[in-house]
Amino acid sequence: MPKHITRLLMLIGGALVLALVVRWFVIPDSFHRFGHFRANSVIEIAAKERVFQGSAYCSTCHADRHAQWSASNHKSVNCETCHGAAKGHPENGKLPIPTDTVALCTLCHEAMPGRPQTQPQIVVASHGADQQCKTCHNAHAPKIAAGPVKIEGDVAAGRKLATAECASCHGAKGISPNDTWPNLAGQNAAYFVRITSAYKSGDQQDVMMTPLAKALSDQDIRNLAVYYAELSCAEGASTRVDRTAVEAGKSLAKNCAACHGETGIGSNPAWPNFAGQKAGYLINVMKAFRGGLRKDPMMAGVVRGLSDTDINNLAAYYAAQPCQPTKR
Amino acid sequence: MSTDTLPSVDARRKFLGKLGLVAAGCAGASLASGTLGAFAPKANAATGPVEVFPSKDYDWTKHKWAFGVDANKCIGCLRCVEACKTENSVPGNPHQFRTWVERYVYLEGETHAHIDSHQDPVNIAASGAPNKYRFANRYQNTKVEKAFFVPKLCNQCENPACVQVCPVGATYQTKDGVVLIDEKHCIGCRYCIQACPYGARYFNEERGAPDKCNWCYHRITRGLQPACVDACPVGARVFGNMQERESPISLFIRNNRVQVLRPEMGNSPKVFYVGIDKEVS
Amino acid sequence: METHAHWAQYTGWVFPNETIIDWTVLLAVYPYLTGLVAGAFTVSSLYQVFGFERLRPVAHLALLTSLSCMLFVPLPLLLHLGQPLNAMNAMITPHLTSAMAMFGFFATFYVVLLMLELWFAYRPFIVEQAQKRTDLLGKVYKLLTLGSYDVSERALAIDKKWVFWLAVIGIPGAHGLHGYVGFLFGSLKSREWWSSDLMPVIFLFSAIISGVSLLIVLYVVTCKLRRVEIDLACLKGMAYTVWAFIMVAFVLEWLEFANIVYKGREGVDMIMEFVTGPLLVPYFVLQFGIGAALPMLWLTYMIWRGTTGRALVVGVTTSASLVLFSVFMMRWNVVIGGQQLSKTGRGLVFYDLPFWGQEGALVAILLTIAPLVVLWILTKVFPPWDDSHGHHGSDGHSHGTPGLAAAH
Fold it and tell me: Are residues A217 and A80 located together in one domain of the fold?
């Protein structure tokens, strides 16, 4: 073979050998161990630190909150979903407590086509309007407690008791003679039971109502509740109607509609209806909630930002609404 | 040129022959050592004794992972999408996802679904920030006949097209059934992104390599669940070990009529769907 | 965090990860260049292996053109890679199931083959120059001789054999090289626009016509620059080649499109909307119409009428230029067009070609021009000109063309 051919072949052969040698040095150690990949890459990926720590991690310091949450409807919503990943917490400081709950809660709870009906969802505009969700709902126990819904009682016994004990202030037919004491006619029985029981137990305190409620038995309360629930509230409205106040109150009332309905007739029997209720009574009650004399964390939150004028307007609005016909 | 005094032809031939033998020997030796070296199991400092891989607490031969999606349950809250981005440092923009949710809406009188997801400008506007995701309630005032949400993620196929086309072995299938990406070895050619029929991969410019869901491999190898499964408030995402008969995924597959996306592609995906519809692919 | 990704506009429904075109214009330039490589080599092989004597004037130019283009083939890929420093992984740990990995080996094999063929073809010239010159270039030639100045009859006969067999092996080499590029696209089931058994063949035939057309243009231009008379027989020979292959390419491309339409698989509605919409001009007007049908008809006319002289030169050169343009459009329509069709089959993504930037139009243009610059340099070092028009000297070698012995 001519010289140049042999030299060429040796050149090529040498280059091949060199390439193989270089490859042998350069190929990553763990390659081909389990297949055509770098086995150490699996180790590297598996060794990555996790970011989300899991809700159990939170319970070490936030035991009470964790207990409350894990007994609630939100137990399927992990802490870090709303508060952010807990990696580096508490060393790096606090985790955010969401302030814009309208933005946060509506992510799951805004009524949207495509959401299965099993998901609790609301039309935001008519539920609480511009209020923050946390005003009424505790994110760690979001379901709002309702009292007993169906009240069993003796109407006749209730009538007897009412005429004897209650009519002097609340009227013979449950329509109050003045602006300060509330109408009871047509009120939700469940709410009646709840509030009267609260006076009886001391959860609520009122100079007049407390001793009267304490004198009642639980059955008495139930009998009264069913009796009053059946009465007609039609004649109960205040006579004075201030149109401007009513208008002003109407726009404020949007914030109350979620629980109390657009006109003060609500969906939950555990909460009072007050369409057509005495305006003066409503004003006093709202001020009592605002001042903490009447205890309800939800109501306190709702009325906290109301001015006296707001309260007057709201009262005027509800007082001017037609109350619903007799119901049980 | 020529005519210099050269050894005889015979001598030259012998010399060349010897040279050739040496060259062949070198080639053979390096080939042999190279291939042997590649196949011999190496005791690696990171793992110690070789038996259990990838770590002493986790044996990948004892697991065969699979994923389930119940589209009947999904509420489209997108907590899973955000959780994944947090857990896996996915770029915070609405165009690159390891997992995402699609919304299908059939309006009254129409035969085809309106489909949208997070890159839709309307949804981007509703979300408020590039790394926050939300479906705009754009159909609330229309007559909707049928609507549902479908979460999507990498299907970790049994016959992954992406692994087949990778020129360097930078993406591969593990023994526990997950397809991983070795960013250090990747050249960034993006052939795998082209090959995936499901759009599961995206290219991360900063790292110069593609990225995709890996079922939070760093979590599942520690007995945890993928971040998206934990984040879902309604249990639309299910995960587990198919080798265990009573694992959530085994129960899910056994108790439901499940299907996969694009079975005709032949990839044998391992994400099983319940409650999807004719137009979902 | 700001990245340099440019999110693409889209219509209809596309996957969230699809709002970007991953393979840019550079991935259209790359098959274009490999196509020129294969096509140019075909011209050389037609002479070396199949004895098309009339192509002698361009035989060496073809080899040099093939090499110049081949040298630039890796560049668009390297500029596109996310981690170019890892590029050698494709040779160190090639995944044998990947068309891209196999392409690396074909490319390496082919470039070595090409350099060998050129070396053997130019050996007498190299030896002569090594002995004559004393400048730097002379040192380069000396290196290339590998220390052997043997240009005896026997050595040259062996060289001739090497050239022949290298050319023979080079045919599947060059065509396999470009066929693999076609297979790279055609083997993907994820994109309806790419997935086709015909893709490697289509790429190959369009590659051949692009390479031959380039040679036509180069030959005419260099003749004009060197003020040498154009060998009309040679020109016509190349024209015949283009004519024959363009008909096949045309049929194949139409066949592929017809298949998609006829089979009507899922996503065909979107494809029809696409080709009658955004792709109408690039596909039907530019690629098929002006770029293929027009040159085909023109060449047919010239062949039928026996056109010769200046009319032939103008006609053939213009047709060749149109073909060059059409083949680039074909690469563009396949690579970019394929990515514009969403994997959902229900949406379109739009590609915004930037002028500047690592993967912009400027870089694409420079990459396409660069091989010509290198070719110019190579023609100085290895002159391919055959000015003797086949005239043989008394020593049995033709004058002018270094080392260009008759093929048979």
Answer: no
Q: How large is the average pLDDT for residues B200-211?
A: 96
Same structural domain for residues A132 and A152?
no
The number of folded domains in chain A is 3
Same domain, A306 and A189: yes
pLDDT at B118 over 50: yes
Q: Is residue A23 part of a domain?
A: yes
**For chain C, which chains pass the contact test of at least 3 CB pairs under 8 Å?**
A, B
CA distance B29 to C360: 47
Other beta carbons within 10 angstroms of residue C153's beta carbon come to: 8
Per-residue pLDDT for B138 more than 70? yes
Q: Is B67 exposed, middle or buried (0-12, 13-18, 19+ CB in 10 A)?
A: buried
Query: What strand order describes the sheet that includes B237-241?
Result: B237-241, B65-70, B271-274
For position A266, what pLDDT does the model report?
A: 83
Facing C98 at nearest CB: one of B164, B188, B196: B164
C222-244 pLDDT, tens digit per residue, is 999 999 999 999 999 999 999 99
A261 lies in the same domain as A316: yes
pLDDT in tens, B51-108: 799 999 999 999 999 999 999 999 999 999 999 999 999 999 999 999 999 999 999 9
- On whether residue A51 sits in a domain, the answer given is no
Q: Which residues of chain A have pLDDT under 70?
A: 129, 146-148, 235-240, 324-328
3-state secondary structure (DSSP) of residue B63:
coil
C162 and A5: CB-CB below 8 Å? yes
Same domain as A307, residue A261: yes
Task: Give the Cα separation of B126 and C255 in Å (integer).
Answer: 47
Strand ranges for A177-262 from DSSP E: none
On chain A, the residues whose CB falls within 8 A of the CB of C88 are 26
Q: Cα(first)–Cα(last) distance of chain C, in Å?
A: 66
Distance from the A153 Cα atom to the nearest Cα atom in chain B, whole angstroms: 41
State the architecture of B161-211 in CATH terms. Answer: 2-Layer Sandwich (3.30)
Q: Which of A33, C58, A268 is nearest to B174 (CA)?
A: A33
Does the predicted interface ipTM exceed a cut of 0.85?
A: yes
Count of helix runs (H) and strand runs (E) in chain B: 8, 12
Q: Which of A76, A108, A136 is the last residue of a domain?
A: A136
Beta bridge partners of residue C11, listed in sequence order? C348
Residue A117 and residue A263 share a domain: no
A327 and A201 both lie in a single domain: yes
**Is A157 a domain residue?**
yes
Does the residue A54 lie in any domain?
no
- Alpha helix segments (H runs only) across A144-296: 155-161, 167-170, 189-201, 209-214, 218-230, 243-253, 257-260, 279-291
Query: Mutual orientation of helices A189-201 and A218-230 as an angle, nearest 10°?
Result: 150
Furthest C-alpha separation in chain A = 134
Within this chain, do residues A283 and A151 fall inside the same structural domain, yes or no? yes
Domain range spanning residue A26?
Answer: 3-46
Give A119-138 pLDDT, tens digit per residue: 999 998 878 767 888 888 88
Cβ–Cβ below 8 Å for B147 and A116: no
DSSP bridge partners of A60: none
